[in-house]
Amino acid sequence: MEAVNLLSSNRYTEKQIGYLFISVLVNSNSELIRLINNAIKNDLASRNPTFMGLALHCIASVGSREMAEAFAGEIPKVLVAGDTMDSVKQSAALCLLRLYRTSPDLVPMGDWTSRVVHLLNDQHLGVVTAATSLITTLAQKNPEEFKTSVSLAVSRLSRIVTSASTDLQDYTYYFVPAPWLSVKLLRLLQCYPPPEDPAVRGRLTECLETILNKAQEPPKSKKVQHSNAKNAVLFEAISLIIHHDSEPNLLVRACNQLGQFLQHRETNLRYLALESMCTLASSEFSHEAVKTHIETVINALKTERDVSVRQRAVDLLYAMCDRSNAPQIVAEMLSYLETADYSIREEIVLKVAILAEKYAVDYTWYVDTILNLIRIAGDYVSEEVWYRVIQIVINRDDVQGYAAKTVFEALQAPACHENLVKVGGYILGEFGNLIAGDPRSSPLVQFNLLHSKFHLCSVPTRALLLSTYIKFVNLFPEVKATIQDVLRSDSQLRNADVELQQRAVEYLRLSTVASTDILATVLEEMPPFPERASSILAKLKKKKGPGTVTGLEDAKRERGVDVNGGPEPAPASASAASTPSPSADLLGLGATPPAPAGPPPSSGGLLVDVFSDSASAVAPLAPGSEDNFARFVCKNNGVLFENQLLQIGLKSEFRQNLGRMFIFYGNKTSTQFLNFTPTLICSDDLQSNLTLQTKPVDPTVDGGAQVQQVVNIECVSDFMEAPVLNIQFRYGGTFQNVSVQLPITLNKFFQPTEMASQDFFQRWKQLSNPQQEVQNIFKAKHPMDTEITKAKIIGFGSALLEEVDPNPANFVGAGIIHSKTTQIGCLLRLEPNLQAQMYRLTLRTSKESVSQRLCELLSEQF
Fold first, then answer.
1. What is the tens place of the pLDDT at every residue in 280-324?
2. Residues 424 and 453 both lie in one domain
3. Does residue 547 fall inside a structural domain?
4. What is the per-residue pLDDT for 600?
5. SS3 per residue for 614-665
6. Does the pLDDT value for residue 551 go beyond 50?
7. Residues 396 and 510 occupy one common structural domain
8. Which of 303, 439, 475, 832 has its CA 20 to 30 A from that of 540?
9. Does one domain contain both 484 and 371?
10. What does the DSSP 8-state code read for residue 549?
11. Spans of biased composition, class Pro residues (predicted)?
12. 412-438 pLDDT per residue, tens
């Protein structure tokens, strides 16, 4: 009570002691809370800046729901009032931020929200810093209401980064002007996509270029505080560049800057550089630049003393891996695995398994890699990994004999890990006949080798080996008697484990009474496993933590798609095999399409409704989705759409007239999405030219989680439009309806064709009819950079033909558009005019509509 009385004092020291006591010791349920609230209201209304500051500090310190109910409506008025002093504005902004974080539902959005944005223009940088913290938090939940903050934040950031250290003396920290405010502004800009206004976008690009340029300048001080402040701004700027993923020049420059930090003596900088480069590796524009640092990253893996830095190095090697460097990276990760810290061994095993499968051109290399993995770190090889090698060996006829020979040789080691025995037992039981012609691996030798491991294994492995033995009875009649003796022994028929006992009894009886034909039918070779997504990838994501929206970024890093999918096999058993399905192509599109759920749609425009109830009206395309669509013309992976609730990421692969697209739906909120229904919509014309098959999606998406949908694609004939993806769901009782164009365009079915100069121009002349050529002369929309232009033409799908055009400044390409009904050859020529900042694009194909469509798509890229 004495403390409450002190609040009524007009002396600062007494009032301060009263507020201090209340902030620390008074419970929010105290009977005195009403008296305290009245005293705080009096101080807020007093217009005395000192007393107002004390009251605001007390509210923020207590931060209870009762405080929010009492003052959440008052504090915004103090914040935006014209006569409020700067120090009080700072306190009011931070106090409101505290209440919003504890009780967001009690802080009303109103007229003050538009006025608080203009605090970014305040002359007092302390007010701007506090307001930026508040706006960033509010914008994460209500981005549309604070969209106007983007231009103001860019303007303020521009003034800071272009100022000299003497211009902002009160807010310059070791020669770095306003580093805390710069970081906060950059974080605020990460709440939004790149600005649509060209002037604002250009100014932001200048700011980011200036920050990157300053990072190259010699340090103005040798003190660690200077480098810390400078690097804090730099890393936040790089995070913004990665978030926007739209400026190739900035992405490559950011990568080069981070590369310089990889060998820095400061451990924290090396860690942050590796972490940021992991994200950069997911961008189509900077992936190649990241790959140039592979030797430095491998060296860090070998020599780095800090385990957390080594783990980031492993992550970066995984992110930068592609077909060109997969053997080198997998070999280095296997080498490191022998001495790796126990805490990260399982993660490395999963990553090696994923990379070996994803980029295996020669599957004998894949088999060798997985067996080596089991030898080095068998204890950390989960069931998903050895299941996966079984799936791939069974599904690929060309590797079965090699796999049988390799596991047979591996099993001859005196000490074998149990996982190797499982793999060996399964493969020899299926394909041991392929190596039985060699006396060194005769049927009896194979059986004796496996049985020598039997007594050292656990019960599940023994059960698998018993299944292998009965398979041998069918494959090798000459060892039937030997195997029956083993099955007849007391150690099997009277085994304490009921599973082993039952298998021994049933297998013995089967081998005794069944005819040769029945044995051949029951014990025939396992059929190919159905194509399905790899479970190893799911295991890796589970190990990383619960599914979050950042998982979309992981998905972007996985630049190839799983092309050898299949569910986990059960251990080999005597169960009757189902009818084998034909070997699916690499993309798995030969599989039978899923049965439609429910009645067919009445509208001809609705292609497929993914296991949903009747859909509501389709929303118009989301703002900005057309720009994102254009970005995907020359790339296959990335974030297609993002708002405050939902993030949609894509990962896709195309081969000839077939394609597969993985769509990742991320819930950015903490609340469940209910009745989540994605639907693909095509016009009548598009339906006849493009076949899409989808798999169902869970109708409930937990807060912070993501779900994946697979779309199988077949190009039947050339097409002009793109399908629309409509997503409908309920969030917090509110119906949400979002539509975006799905970037499935004609150029995705391009296959590059290499041609000599003479062949190119001979074919060029053959396509000289007016209806076969389309030409477009247009102004450059982006900087005319030669390397970026080359990358875009290659990303478009055609082969880039070097030294073909007489003018070395021109770009020429060739390729074939594949569809189910026909193949259409395509030649292109791009002539840049640097002086006029213009391009002339000429496309020639045997079909006018194809020339027109490809010209439209490619013109938008430059």
1. 888 888 888 898 999 999 998 888 888 889 889 999 999 899 888
2. yes
3. no
4. 36
5. CCCCCCCECCCHHHHHHHHHHCCCEEEEECCCEEEEEEEEEECCEEEEEEEE
6. no
7. yes
8. 303
9. yes
10. T
11. 593-602
12. 988 889 999 999 999 999 999 899 888
